[in-house]
């Protein structure tokens, strides 16, 4: 397919929560040593003040400050777009009306990528009209900076664009301001790949022959291969963000599952969803309708082996495999109403009809029906049909900041600041066809700060259900995330901690696990499990090192965590190590991760008495995409 270069050429309780969170914020700021730092407002924060220029010089315009806040790759893209279109930044866009919306979409490989530019002829860049359609300001509208920023957030999709910048530029008339939308496509016809390597084997692999930008329309069609610990799945997926040019979205997928050891067919899943999303902060109504069906095999792993179980009812050691078949189906519908401007509140009402039916495999090595019942009670999810109506509520403040070098390198990452609250209540009743009668409730609160130009977030959550007159299946959680700004332009410190506990848990298949899958990087998958758990991480992340268009980074880290039957049984398991990060912006928005970790304490033993993790060298190497936390 030829490129588009030719066209380019052409309440009181609430107040109490706020007070407590503010106090916590002060403690956090003190901990990271940022409380005394003068807070320089980001030019990308909605409603934020614009800092003055350097001492003794004239104050810089907001558009100039926005430009200076860009990463190196983004600045190069903007410079090329301004030069090619003969445009200049507009220093005072406020009070003017929008004139022309200019779109400049860079090819995947730039002139700095040498002969790789030839690959551009195999990629269809996003059509200008598709990008222009997402701009929330139309010609003739008053210039509103919040809508300019929101346009950038809406266009910033990691599978389609590696960078998106929207800036005001001088118009042809004195009372008008034009908009310049600069994007760069990622390579869309490719093998999209995510993987997790560790414990000497490929633990998971997700890859697909995918066209993420079908004919330049931002529609995605792919044929996927998904490798898990015990099985793999293949099948197509399709996503259309603008059905027939409307705001409706459609997604659908089909998967056929095969056992990893014998390649025998073992299951199927299919799903589809149609939505009318809240595509902007000004949107008032949204809705969705979805359905899914799956008939698959569930497995639980301890390290690299299938977890085994021993029945207390038998005198000998059984070593029964933790595996069963589960058939599930669901249909859900929802309507959402959004309110407010300075504080966004959203209320959703909906209905869910679902069914879960677990059973043992035909060749399961346990024939006694009574023993099967005992084992099923220990590992199966609840076998029941649920028909429930629900009401949910959420609140957040639409204040955003663009960070760089947190999850990726040199590319903008949108973070919402301020408080957020959420809650839901659901009621399953028999007259709607439900086999179980219960009421479930959940609630959560979080607050995100940017003290000292860093990033801090604290959050708490709770959920539970009332069944047979009792409060059961409680889950309590808390988390904190702390990150400094880039210190001396060389590195930043990042810390993360979270904890969760299940109280009176009646769901045999639900438990807390800690191991490689939760970034205790020197230990095995699912090595520790129970009803209570905690995890903590600390990393020193270097600034990105530019190597041509690539970005390299180094990491030193320390992990700590454990899971056990109850809080008083929790111990301390630790590891430390070094890591390498690589960003290839032409192919991915997120980084490739390679880590080497050494355990400080021995781990646990499997059913055969083998020690899964031994302390000390040689340690474990793991790899995958995205930061570890």
Helix content: 10-25%
Count of DSSP H/I helices? 7
Kindly report how far apart the N and C termini lie: 38 Å
Radius of gyration (Å) = 26 Å
Average pLDDT confidence is: 80
Report low-confidence residues grouped into runs of 5 or more. Answer: 1-58
Strand proportion: over 45%
The main pleated sheet reads as: 20 strands, antiparallel, barrel
Structural class: mainly beta
Number of strands: 31
Question: What form results from the Cα inertia axes?
Answer: globular
Descriptive report:
The chain has seven helices and 31 strands. The strands form five sheets. The protein has a 20-stranded antiparallel beta barrel. Strands 1-3-2 form a three-stranded mixed sheet, with helices on both faces. A two-stranded antiparallel sheet has the order 11-12. Mean pLDDT is 80; it is low at 1-58. The chain has helices at residues 5-9, 12-31, 62-68, 72-85, 128-133, 145-155, 369-379; strands at residues 97-106, 161-170, 176-185, 189-198, 201-211, 220-227, 231-240, 249-259, 265-276, 285-299, 301-302, 305-306, 308-309, 320-321, 323-339, 344-359, 384-396, 399-403, 413-428, 438-449, 455-467, 470-483, 491-503, 512-514, 528-530, 532-542, 545-547, 550-564, 573-583, 592-599, 620-625. It is globular. By secondary structure, it is mostly beta strands.
